[in-house]
């Protein structure tokens, strides 16, 4: 018989616990109104990108990254017809990612 050290296995967090489909569903449920196509395509791409950043195992909140995101969002929505709707979309977007706007 060999003397082997005991092997301990530790369960990792299920990285697929929140899928991209879940994040997109949360967004659409919280903001069920049509977004003009010039913005909706970009919102979907940005949501997908932020989902993978947010649910990466090495994710940690960063004020600098958040400022960068807000800056990109503001540039993306420059010229959007309604400031009120722009703010609602932002809140729904951030909440869909499990964050606090």
From TrEMBL:
Transmembrane segments: none annotated. This is Uncharacterized protein. Keywords: Coiled coil. GO terms for biological process: photosystem II assembly; protein import into chloroplast stroma; protein import into chloroplast thylakoid membrane; thylakoid membrane organization. It comes from Minchinia chitonis. GO terms for cellular component: chloroplast thylakoid. InterPro entries: Thf1. Pfam families: ThylakoidFormat.
């Amino acid at each position: 018989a060999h003397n082997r050290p005991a092997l301990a296995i530790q369960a990792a967090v299920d990285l697929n616990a929140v899928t991209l489909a879940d994040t997109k569903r949360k967004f659409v449920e919280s903001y069920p109104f049509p977004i003009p196509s010039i913005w909706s395509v970009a919102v979907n791409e940005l949501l997908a990108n932020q989902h993978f950043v947010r649910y990466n195992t090495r994710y940690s909140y960063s004020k600098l990254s958040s400022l960068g995101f807000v800056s990109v969002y503001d540039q993306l929505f420059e010229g959007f017809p309604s400031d009120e709707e722009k703010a609602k979309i932002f809140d729904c977007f951030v909440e869909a990612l499990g964050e606090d706007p």
